[in-house]
Each structure stands twice: as structure tokens, then as C-alpha cells.
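Box 4.2: Ligand-aware structure prediction
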Amino acid sequence: MKDLIIIGGGPGAWSCAMTAINRGLTCAVVTTGKQFSGLTKAHLVTNYPGLPNISGEDLLDKMEQQARDMGCEVISGNARQIMPNGKNYMTLVGNDILDSQAICLALGASRPKLLPGEDTLLGHGVSWCGTCDGMFYRKKPVAVLSAWSGGVEDAEFLAGVCSSVDYYVLSKHDLPQDERIVMRPERPLSLEPSENGVRVNFDQGSAEYSGVFVFRPAVAPSTLLPGLAIDGNVIAVDRRMATNLPHVYACGDCTGQPLQIAKAVGEGNIAAISCAQDLAEARKGEKM
Ligand SMILES: Cc1cc2nc3c(=O)[nH]c(=O)nc-3n(C[C@H](O)[C@H](O)[C@H](O)COP(=O)(O)OP(=O)(O)OC[C@H]3O[C@@H](n4cnc5c(N)ncnc54)[C@H](O)[C@@H]3O)c2cc1C
């Protein structure tokens, strides 16, 4: 059980981790990887104090290394779902569940763009989690639509459960090397219900499956943590970076403008301090 699980991997997350550790909290950062932070695309960063003329990628590497050196655990993977568990939280990462007393969301600004039809079919033939839902499609044909290498592990799991697995690439990534998985060249454009499950539509033609699994390196905040208050399309926070849910904080681009490194770092720092204060208060209350 960690005090704090931070979901991210950009400046907000690393800053939050460093201050949390300084404040005596145990913490882990769950991240899909630096390649999904917009900052890796910044050729040159000129407005981050103390580090003039550094590339975005180098800056991220330095931040991550600093957090690791301070004792931060780093867990690679996509946090798919966070569930309350009494006063604590359970975070589903790949096939593992991580327990923590508090959560900080440092998800960045990018929101997954869903395929037309995906939203309405979610839970009705479409799933975002092979491990959670694979057994519903035992000995049945399924499709995997993946935008990142994280989908490969799920496809391999499904290949052991389902009668067939067709794999479609939504964005370029390292592909499965498993003869049970059939690579399909078509580009899925939309999903719709069909007599036996779900129809995947292409530019020309379509294919039908009992189930369709879609994997991306990000999840919309309200899907990740049901009940989380959203303001427009950003996570609603107060000045302490606290959300509407107990011991859940957010920082960085996912809380809104300005989308800047210094703002993400500052908010990560505030979120960690608020978290340390709130957990100390809660523990005092438990002792009384
Ligand atoms: C091309 C470009 C140039 C820029 N140049 C500058 C600049 O010069 N100066 C400046 O101040 N700002 C600049 N920015 C903005 C800056 O990059 C962002 O403000 C900053 O990176 C925000 O940090 P963050 O921690 O909020 O999110 P991000 O850096 O976006 O990191 C979020 C991370 O969380 C991960 N993640 C999301 N969901 C999950 C999940 N469910 N499970 C696990 N991991 C997850 C993402 O994959 C990503 O790695 C630039 C941005 C771009 C795109």
C-alpha cells in the first residue's frame, strides 16, 4: 500500500513525486512513457528557469531521474481504472492492482479520440480491458484495435481465451509476434452493433466479431475515475489542487490553461503538499 499513486509521467507527475517524498510519503508514478508527453516534441525549451536551452526530452529525462534517485517507484503501463476501496483507492494497471491512500492525476492534455460508435458500445461488445472482459468472449472471435504497444500483451492474453484474434493498428507501434494473432491491414473507421456482436467498418468493407477490444495509451479522466468532477474538458480543482473526491488531486495540463511546464511543476508541488497535509489530518483523526 502506497500513500500516493501519481498517474502521469510529465513534469507535473515528477514534481509531485519529489515533493511527496520530501514530505515523507511513499509514492509511485504510473506512466505510459515519456513518448506520450507533448514535451518530448519540444525541440528547445527556453522558459524553464535554471535550465536554459534544453530539449523537452532531456528535461523530462532529468526530472524522471531526479525522482527515481529520491526513491520514487516508477511503474510502466496505462492506468485503466481507479476504484474507491473504503477510504483507499485501487488502480488497475495492466493486470495488476495498486493500492494507495491518495491519487494524483497528472494526465496531460491529450484526450483519446474515440471511434464513432465506440462510446455507445462500451460494455455492449466493446471493451478497453482484455483481462477484465476477455472471459466473456471465451472461444469466440474478437478484434483488437490498438494505438500502442500496450495492446500487444492483452492481445496475447485474448489469443489464449478466444477462438481467434484479429489485430488492427490504430497508430504505429511495435506489433505482436505471435502466430495465434492475425495482423489485419485495414484501418478501422467506425464501430456499430451487428447481429452477432460488433461490426468494424473500414474504408471498403467491414468485419464482424463477438467482441472488440480497443487499447490506447490514455483514458478520459471521467472514465478513469468515475464520479470525478469535470469543468468543461478539464479536471475541476480548487487552489490546493484537490478534486471533488477525497484524497484525489490533479495537476498540470489536465487541470487547464496555461499549458506550460512551470505551471505543471508548481501544481504538482501544491498537490503533494495538500496530500501530505490531508493524510496527516486523517491519520490524526483515526488515532483519536
Ligand atoms: C511541441 C510542444 C512544445 C512545448 N514547448 C513548451 C515550452 O517551450 N515551454 C513550456 O513551458 N511548455 C511547453 N510545452 C507544454 C508542455 O509540454 C506541457 O505544459 C507539459 O508537458 C505538461 O506537463 P503534464 O505533466 O501536465 O503533462 P504531460 O507532459 O503531457 O505528461 C502526461 C503524461 O501522462 C501520461 N498518461 C496519461 N494518461 C495516463 C494513464 N491513464 N496511465 C499512465 N500514464 C498516463 C501520458 O502518456 C504522458 O506521458 C510544449 C508542448 C508541446 C506539445
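In the box above, the bound molecule is flavin-adenine dinucleotide. Helices lie at 11-22, 56-69, 118-121, 130-133, 150-159, 221-224, 261-287.
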